[in-house]
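Hey,
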Amino acid sequence: AKAGLKDGFSVTMDTRSTAEITGIAQAMQATFAQAGIKLEILPMDSKQALTKYRARQHDIYIGNWGSDYQDPNSNADT
């Protein structure tokens, strides 16, 4: 209310269409709702999500990271 948003606001979240990420997004959606924030989840395939993310055309993006090369030390370090 002090920020001028007493009725809350809406925001979108781009996600990859995987069960793990969708589950996290749904948990965040429920938590956001407690604060009066309407979170719309926009599931898409990995290529679509990364393209939109890299172009900075998203409100919120949730995904996962993996190294783009096979290095045992880097994978173990992560």
